[in-house]
Amino acid sequence: MDLSPPVSAPQLPVAYAGLSQRSPEATFNGTTWWEGFHDKTLSSLVSRAGSSNLTIAQAEQNLLAARALGHSAIAGYRPEVGTVALANASTGSRVNNDFTRRPLQLNLEVGWEAALFGQDKQTQRSADLTTEMASEDLAAARLAVAAEIAASYVHLRALQQRHADTVETIALLQKNSELADVRERVGLSTAIETEPQKSGIETAKSRLADLENEINTSAQQIATLQGSATPAASLLKPQPQPIAPARLMSGRPADLLRSRPDVRRAELAVAQAGAQVGLARSELYPKLRLSGTIGIGAPIDSSLFGASGGPSLQIPIFDLGKRKDVVTASEAKFREAGFAYRQTVLVAYEEASRALREFNAAQRKTAQLKSKLKRVTTVRNGADILVREGLEDRSKSIRGALDVLELRASLTDSIEDEARAFIAFYKATGAAEQAARPRASERLK
Known about the structure:
Elements: H1 40-52, H2 54-71, E1 80-87, E2 104-114, H3 119-185, H4 191-225, H5 233-236, H6 256-259, H7 261-282, E3 287-298, E4 305-314, H8 320-388, H9 394-428, H10 440-443
Antiparallel strand pairs: 1-2, 2-3, 3-4
Helix pairs in contact: 1-3, 2-3, 3-4, 3-7, 3-9, 7-8, 8-9
């Protein structure tokens, strides 16, 4: 089986599906994507997680372990030197001049397995690739943690906005209920008509309790990502919702091949599987080992020293079939790694395209809701004027305020959806700051 040319990526479109050609791409001037939110708390959380997150810490230790093992990967193909001291018991009195059979001896033994068919190079290459994959695992961990912190933070601020709006809604509903009670007392309405308003207050209060629980849960999730059991006080203090930038730095789908850590890792896995095929094939050929012993022994007749040594040749005969099966299995693993690489690329493109479509859809919805909120607010302001002039019932002004709050709730959801789609896109594309990294095949040449 010929392992070259290397496994190629599937053909990708020149642009992401759903990309608007009318919108220019964003530029961050070398900054990281989360700084596009212009939220100092978010930037601080992501920055601190780089040194405190436990998933990242595990990936760093895995990389250190891989580097250490890679440093001595070919130790088995280097000369081995050792000393052996022996004491042999004998029932006879005859002196044996064979130094390897003397009652007392001290030997210096040397052995070396010659790598005649490149086993040492393939072993070192496999170890180097393992180190490279551990490096990509670390990059993937950093990217995933940054995206998860950003998404959790965006959700937390949206929950706090919903909480504030719900508090305001309860206050308005209570005012409306008081007006309804007055109308009931003067006979302008019945208990059947006022009961739904009281029920609405209870529903809003229940929702408020749920939001408080969700806020605490979200803050705790962020604390866990920070490697802590206690949420930071700044998280529990309500802040405005982070607003996603108006444009994305979309790039080209082909950039996924060098920007996504999992894609780069899958490419490295193909190369490593190829190295394993080479090692399996080398086991089909004879092995040459050179060994020798220099020793001192007593008692002796003529000399303290003795030496022996020579080459040994190991030829696979009886287990040749098993070794061929190993080659066949390793070749199948190589092909499987190639399919996995192509699948990883396609999934990366799908995720990026979906996030882009969701971002564009949320952006359009946010614009529509802002426009509608502006119109409804204008109507409500007009109703407030009529109420102050005594020309309209106060309950109409309250209903208008409730309509505004309902729209604000929808806008809060849409702003969160837009921000989360923004985060998902940069996670799916591997983040802008990693785009300049070379492809794995270029680094390993």
